[in-house]
Amino acid sequence: xxxxxTVVGARPQFVxxxxxxxxxxxxxxxxxxxxxxxxDDAMSAAFxxxxxxxxxxxxxxVGSGSHxxxxxxxxxxxxxxxxxxxPDGILVYGDTNSTLAAALAAAKLVVDGRRPWLAHVEAGLRxxxxxxxxxxxxxxxxxxxxxxxxxxxxxxxxxxxxxxADRAELVGDVMVDAHLWASQRAEDQxxxxxxANPGYVLATLHRAENVDRPEMLARWMRELAVDRRxxxxxxxxxxxxxxxxxxxxxxxxxxxxxVGYLTMVALEDHAHAIATDSGxxxxxxxxxxxxxxxxxxxxxxxxxxxxxxxxxxxxxxGGLAAALADSAFMDRTRPRPAPYGDGRAAGRIVAAxxxxxxxxxxxxxxxxxxxxxxxxxxxxxPRRAASEAPAR
Length: 392
Description:
Blueprint: E1 3-8, H1 11-24, E2 29-34, H2 45-51, E3 58-59, H3 67-85, E4 89-93, H4 97-107, E5 117-121, H5 133-144, E6 147-150, H6 153-161, E7 168-170, H7 174-183, H8 192-195, E8 201-204, H9 208-211, H10 214-223, E9 230-233, H11 236-245, E10 253-256, H12 261-270, E11 273-276, H13 279-288, E12 292-294, H14 302-306, E13 310-312, H15 319-325, H16 327-330, H17 345-367
Helix pairs in contact: 1-7, 1-17, 3-4, 4-5
């Protein structure tokens, strides 16, 4: 039995962790540490309730701040938790400051003379935009991790080019697992606002490059002035900038508070189109079979663009209205490949962690390091290569 410490801090990580938590706890012990990066109820506690996973064992309550302040405070608060918990391994998700802080702390951690392993879920994603903090976070996490759990063959190729092929494994995308689970439970969560406005566009906007710069936020508000109702769950970061600058939404936009996961999936499933700067929402749109207009110039989820279901309009004035008017782009009958797996990624992740744990303990035994459990034999066989992807 493994003792795993899972570190999360933001909405997308709660979603990704939920299927893995269910699978992991069937045979192993898990403690969840919430850094508090997303800290209000709508962005945090409501997601744990919706996802039907246990509340975090520890909440570091770090809150917001600059990248340096957040990461430093997370590092300061998380190291004692890791030392006290004495986990066999640390599991991190995605590309947030929480991911970076947990990876840095885990990589330098020594507990009772041994080093816990570090595994990164959603490894290998690259936007190739060096100005994105998330890009730096995910690269550092991948290079520190003992196991890079890649969601796609594209991610596997990125890891291979960076010299990480020997510690990379293709497991599929755990968000497919989460989305399948949620879609079966979300229908009765659709808000009355959406039922009363069929054909609505769902919009989300939260990235620093889009909302911290007033000129960019004003530009996106102008883009949302289309001939359809736009439902806009407002991220706290975006709300703060709008309040500070006096920027307002056009009349066709209805602003709501942030919504829980099941409500969000219901809104996505019923939308005419989705406009977003969120990587997770782009992928959820694809899984829902809804055209997505991405308010950025690049995306980590290139498969959605290549399949024709996602359009990048970061440098295209009037791009949102043009996309909505493009009948070929809005055609939902076109093929939609399944590059993200078959919805069984969580089981593969747990199996990969078990194999990693066995190898790690065997290596510790050879070095004579202390271990709380008897060392096991190393797991047989090499890592799965990108060409040996899970069945689609």
